[in-house]
Amino acid sequence: MTKPTNRLAVIGWGALTPLGATAQETWIALVNGQCGIRAIGESWANDLPTRIAGRVHRYPSDSGENLLEPLLQRRLDRATQLAVLAAREAWGQARNYLNNVDRSRIAVVIGTGIGGLSTLERQHTNLNDAGPSRVTPLTVPMMIPNAAAGQIAIELGIHGGCHTPVSACASGAEALLLAQWLLDDDRADVVIAGGCEAPVNRLGLVGFSAMRALSTRNETPEQASRPYCKDRDGFVLSEGAGVLVLKRERDLAYKEKPLGWLLSCGSSCDGYQMVAPDPDGVQASRAINDALERAEVSAKDLSFIQGHATGTRLGDLAEARALHRALGPALDSLPVTAPKSQLGHLLGAAGAVETILAIQALREGKIPASINAERIDPEVRLNVAQQNVAIDGNSSTGDNGQRFALKNAFGFGGHNISLVLGSAC
Predict the structure, then answer these.
(1) Is 415 annotated as catalytic?
(2) Which of 125, 137, 141, 414 is deepest in the core (most CB within 10 A)?
(3) What is the mean pLDDT of residues 328-342?
């Protein structure tokens, strides 16, 4: 029998994305239909088949400059830098909920798909061009995937555990699954969880291009990411970070109202192929059902679905089949939103950033449109939101007026994570 999980209160969040320097800026840009995908102007991309990406251009300061201390800018890979800035925003928002919490009872879980790829590329170039003496002794601590989790724990003085799930594009969502396990098992009272990635460099673009995974709409970057569309031709590589602070419902003080709820996490593994999903979505549908059962939420209770929706031909179709298999006829009336149409694909950061956006949608009662969704693939058969949709006029809510959403995240290697999220009520 599936065991229900503790409802986890989201008490803080932070994000840096191609759409904004904070979680709120990202949300506003999303609902305003903005796109964070741009052409790469630097010469290092001139000979690449894909010359577009989503990059963080703004930072959470009036000057728009990176707020990290110069020493940290030199000693941290870009992925870790983004994670630290997002964690600072989340921690600052959550501070009022953390009175008297022992730092030995706070844990950190930051997922990433690759880790310090920009450091790897830069130092390998130094080695080839100038020899061993030009490789920094900081190469390994900058490059290792757990650098972001470790640095956040160091900065905040946290001692309750430090963890790094590395599960490709599902890493950020899997961090939330691990956070729920830690809280359910009473190993921590608060968990800082999320994901980060900074893959937009020559090596990252060449690697994914060689797989023919990336869109090549170089002349129209804002139209390149086209989840579920008939003419989709791959995803757009992006960078960013998203971090949430989570606390058990029972530990909330009287009258403390969270930003929203992480109700449950479901998981499964395709066991099928390293880069291609199970085309029938059988195991992905198990993750969806697992999450719904643990949340004690039915398909008809959902207000919307936030798809993984990368814009690849195989991935989008497999996800659609998984949704039909798991949700049945209830899916016909459920709007599906695809934030990667505006963000691009943040890989290991995607699950966390998009979870923040899904909870913001529940809070505001507004489902963001998926841009570039003019011609949906007839094989997909999903009700993809082509304009912003008001939730209250479109779906049922719980007995106490609470809204619910399903969020999917799937990764190379067959990692399937589904989340059920709830609005604050």
Answers:
(1) no
(2) 414
(3) 97
